[in-house]
Amino acid sequence: MKVALKHKIIGITVLAAVLPIAVLSGLLLLQERTLTNTLTDDAKANARQEASQVSQLVYRMCELCNQTSEQRLKGHLEAATAEFHRLGPVSFSTNRITWNARNQNTTTQAIPVSLPVMMIGNKPVTLNREFETESPVVDIVTKFTGGLCTIFQRMNPEGDMLRVATTVPNADGKRGIETYLPRRLADGQENPVLACALRGQTYTGRANALGQWHAACYQPIWDSEAKKEVVGLLCVGFNLDEMSNRLRETIRNIRVGKSGYVYVLYGSGEQRGQYVVAKDRTSDGTNIWESKDASGNYLVQTAVFKALLTTNGVPDFERYLWQNKDETAPRMKIVGLTYFAPWDWVIGAGIYEDDYRTMLVKLQAAVGRLLLTGPIGGGIALVLVLVLALVLAQAAVRPITKVIEVTQIIADGNLAQAGTALEGMKMKLNGRGADEPAQLFAAVSLMTQRLGSLVGQVQRSCVSLVSTATEIAAASRQQETTVSEFGASTHEVTAAVKEISATSQELAKTMDDVKHAATATETFADSGRAGLGGMEASMRQLADATAAISGRLAIINEKANNINSMVTTITKVADQTNLLSLNASIEAEKAGEYGLGFAVVAREIRRLADQTAVASLEIEQTVREMQSSVNAGVMEMDKFSGEVAQGVKSANEISAQMGRIIEQVKVLLPRFDTVNDGMRSQAEGARQISEAMSQLSAGARDASESLKQFKSATEQLKESARTLQQETSRFKV
Amino acid sequence: MLFITFQVAGNRYALEARRIIEIVPRAALRPVVGAPGAIAGLLNYRGQCVPVVDLCQLLGGETCNRLLSSRLILTACRPRSGCERIIALLAERVTETIARDEAHFAQAGLLAGTAQRHGLLAAEGAGFIQRIQPETLLAGELESLLVGATEPGA
């Protein structure tokens, strides 16, 4: 179907106006539910996040306060201990004081107790109720630290501790002495403060003193340096209520969301469920442990139990309906719960769900309105667009029709007539400024001018083209000759390259031979080294043998020494025998005639003794000669042994040198491979060059062929240029 | 007559065997402080205290070598006055006996005083042998020292 340009413009304009509105409306309809759900979830998550952050914030506040108070307490204790030690050691005088001791936790009747007077250095701790009169230690500590200080004295073996000096005031504004800490509490449990102190340890924590809670520190006082018995307590502290009042007001002023708030309950013991911080100050101290919701659930108890399970301020959550005193109906709230154990505080930061519900309802209304107003606005826009489109389309189409007429004149080739027509229209269009139809006219007018000059140029160019084609034909003939010459040169190069390739291969073969020779060298060197190893072993055996011979020679020397000692013995015997025979001869002489026979015997004996002496002398001489020979042998052996060791050392050195040679040859081998590879690749390169040259030669032939074709193409070009000349002459410029 | 021969300072001497009580090996001697050099010390001979005269010192001016053949010759000495007493003579090479007649020893005919003291000479082998008498050998202050010291009352 043919649609006029005018109708197309109208159609596009209307479509452009209607489509976005329709799509937006559809999308809004589709996304409404998802949007609402996302926003609700987001709001819930935000509420939860806020409750969590506030709860955690309060927890950290408490933690900070607690740390501050602990540090303050530490300072107080140091001051008190220093003052105590300054005064001197604790002792008890023989004087006694009767105290009317009253249990600080009950209202029972006071009991009189007689105790020896506690002495700190030389200062007695006496019964002093007035603040105007000074008590030792405690007054100075309070003056310098601003905290409270108390000295307790042990009342009995059970360990009940009596306040004997203190700066803690009682209900009448006097010193709170004559009250005692019982070892056993009313419920039979052991007092944790005393349990710790009587073991000799320092107790730090919350403690009740005369009905008020204090942050306190109890340090045991020993009877002597030996620390056998705890006879009292030194206590420092400060009133926790003062500090916590400020903290409580800060917490009470925190707002969560629009109408949410923070509350604090005690989490355990008798005070369980009792408000520490309520929404309004009047409710502080009220116990809400038994509170139930409409369906009878103990909602406070559930929340407290959840809080007790949290650690280190990481909150848990509870969601329940809660009726405030000043409101008509219960509202659903989400509570972030933490538990600050040092103070037994359950911290709940609650945010009401309807606070964020209101916001959601407003949002949903806004989305509804958007859905309604969208299509109406669309309709109005459509009518306006339609009228506007009609007028604009009319105005746009008219000039184009005129241009079409001019274009047809140009198509006929009558450029001069077209120029005249355009001049006339230009006058008419001058008032219309620079809209698209006017630009179109300007463009067509410009085109006509340019076309005129172009056709003139083409006609001139045709003439020069014909002459150029003739020149090209001449040039290509000359080139043909050059190409055939080039073909001949290529053949020569190919031959040379083939020769190079052959030489390279031969060289590669030679390198292979060299490599084999090197490998053989390595093998010989290896075997040479092995031979040297054998030689070295033989040398070692020789050295061992030499050592063995030396050992034998030493044994011979020892034996010779033994012989020497034997010879000495024989010599001694011979000497004794000689002596004996001498005396025998003397006795025989004295006996006269009767001793003649005996004298002969004695002479014979002496002769034997003399012979023995001579023989032993000879033996001794022989042995001495033998010994000198052995000594010479030993020296020779030592010398030989040294030479053998030298031989072993030399063999080792030669072996090491052999090792180095093998190492070097081994290093050389891969290099041969590298060179060989290089040679091979060179041969390969030469072969490739040869191939390339062949291809080049073929290329030259191809080029020659192409030139011929080119020549014929030039002829055709000449022909075409002539035809073009004829065609352009049709245009009248 | 049987003689025991010995050597002192390279010269041979002889002593009549009958005069000898016993020949004993050289034993540990107790030195005598302040005595002349010729007195080598005291010997415990079978419970008796016997003075030892070093003949090498007396005749040659040198101490005897400590050889196995250096032995002690125990002899009874009869001084001109006083009673008999045992003394030990220390000499070298106390190993041989010779049997000679009394007439074999004669006066050397030279330096009569010396011969009187050292005894009669006899040619023996390539050298001489001299016969000594303990009493003449020890004449003089040595004799009075040896004998008088033990028997002051005599």
Q: Your description of this structure?
A:
The complex is a heterodimer of chains A (733) and B (154). Chain A is an alpha+beta fold and 733 residues long. Among the domains of chain A are: 88-239, Beta-Lactamase, CATH 3.30.450; 497-716, Methyl-accepting chemotaxis protein (Helix Hairpins, Orthogonal Bundle). Helices cover 66% and strands 15% of the residues of chain A. Chain A has nine helices and 15 strands. Chain A has helices spanning 5-87, 138-145, 192-198, 240-252, 299-308, 353-411, 415-429, 436-591, 596-728, and strands at 90-103, 111-120, 123-125, 148-154, 161-166, 179-181, 203-209, 212-222, 230-239, 255-256, 260-266, 275-277, 316-322, 331-340, 345-352. In chain A, the strands form two sheets. Chain A has a nine-stranded mixed sheet, with helices on both faces. In chain A, strands 10, 11, 12, 13, 14 and 15 form a six-stranded antiparallel sheet that branches. In chain A, β14 (331-340) and β15 form a beta hairpin. The longest helix of chain A is centred in the last third of the chain and has 156 residues, at 436-591. The radius of gyration of chain A is 66 Å and the shape is flat. The model of chain A has no long low-confidence stretch (mean pLDDT 83). Chain B is of the alpha+beta class and 154 residues long. Chain B has one domain: CheA-289, Domain 4 (OB fold (Dihydrolipoamide Acetyltransferase, E2P), Beta Barrel), CATH 2.40.50. Chain B is built from four helices and nine strands; from the N terminus they run βββββαββαββαα. In chain B, strands 1, 2, 3, 4, 5, 6, 7, 8 and 9 form a nine-stranded mixed sheet that branches. The longest helix of chain B is centred in the C-terminal third of the chain and has 8 residues, at 141-148. The radius of gyration of chain B is 15 Å and the shape is globular. The interface between A and B is medium-sized, with 15 and 16 residues.
